[in-house]
Amino acid sequence: MLLFFLLLILGAFLLERASLKDELPYISYTCRPDRRQTEPGQPFTITTALTNRRRLPVAFLRLEEQLPSLLTIKGEGLDLRRKPDFLLLCSTVFLMPKEILTRKIAASLPKRGRYIFRGALIYAGDFLGLQERGRQFRQTEEIVVYPAAAKNQALPQVLGSFLGAQSVRRFILEDPVLTLGFREYTGHEPQRSISWPQSLAKDRLMVRQYDYTQDLSVTVLLNTDCGIKNYQDPLLIEEAFSLARSVCENLEAKKIRYSFLTNATTAGAMGQWSFLPAGLGRQHFYTIMEGLGRATYDHKESCSSLLKRAEKRGEQGQAHILITPRQSPRLAAMVKRLEALIGGKVCLLSASGTAIPETAEEEEAPA
């Protein structure tokens, strides 16, 4: 019996001595969502992998995983602790030699935005639980949540009326590139339409007969400048993002090509998002949705600068849909200028029909 106790004490001593070696350099940790973009409230799966690369077991590991603060986790028996900037998921594990421990968690995020999985703080203890060492495992995995569609029930009718008028208008405007043939000059056509070679051949004045504009194309303008010095309203800007989504969905449903122009800033690396040329389809739509999900409440230029960019890019007679947090007399004047310069109509969609109090100082934001 004494020999048994001696062997037991010797074994505990050897295990304690082995466990005193720093095991954390042999530990690896990853935490990844199963998708990069998602909808508000849509479930997704978070996969955590903890790997022991040693040939010896790890008797004790304590994990403090830093997850997005707004994350909603579905599951029982989880030790969750809410912090000001993140959600802490705490757990303890034992790892066998060369073991990879994988855990899957069902989760969701309630609102638009860019969310970061920042890694974990992992503590390793000795065999007898007398000592503990910690190490930060950092990472920058992210998931982007798209804005929800706008709840404005009148929006489909407003867009339907506007786009219907533009569809009729495109059969009035002729495309000077698409020539169908020639007809006799009546005196009402502009002189630039006269074809002199055909006039010489026919011995009378002949004009080119153009086809009508074949494709209806719309420019969607998203403004995040509230137009007031040192004032940005997050609620109105969020509603503007939702309006932008609904407008793009409506154009996709009607198979109308659209370009996208904005002064919004985005968080994270996304490249050039301030302008997307005219397009249609899944890739075009979700590129805009990702930008809306990453967008902040700041703006890179004023509303007037955005409309000046629209003036330079706009084609003659092209329709525009302007989405803005709020309306103002100054904005109405800028919209009329845009309509006059491009010869097309602008559909103005405001996130709020209620103006900022008259006492607020309205001032052009710096470009």
What does this protein structure show overall?
By secondary structure, the protein is α+β, with helices and mostly antiparallel strands. The protein is elongated. Helix content is 27%, strand content 38%. The chain has a six-stranded mixed β-sheet. The protein folds into three domains: 24-145, Immunoglobulin-like; 155-170 and 214-352, 3-Layer(aba) Sandwich (Rossmann fold), CATH 3.40.50; 179-212, no CATH class.
Largest sheet: 6 strands, mixed
Q: In what range is the share of β-strand residues?
A: 35-45%
Return the CATH topology of the largest domain: Rossmann fold
Q: What is the arithmetic mean of pLDDT?
A: 82
- Low-confidence parts, pLDDT < 50 over ≥5 residues? 168-178, 354-367
Gross CATH architecture of the largest domain:
3-Layer(aba) Sandwich
Tell me roughly what share of residues is in helical segments: 25-40%
Helix/sheet category: alpha+beta
**Total E-strand runs:** 19
H/E series, N to C?
A: HEEEEEEEEEEHEHEEHEEEHEHEHE
The tally of helices reads 7
Q: Enumerate the strands of the largest sheet in spatial order, edge to edge or round the barrel.
A: 2-10-9-4-7-6
Domain unit count: 3
Radius of gyration: 31 Å
Which word captures the global form? Answer: elongated
Distance between the termini: 86 Å
CATH class of the largest domain: Alpha Beta
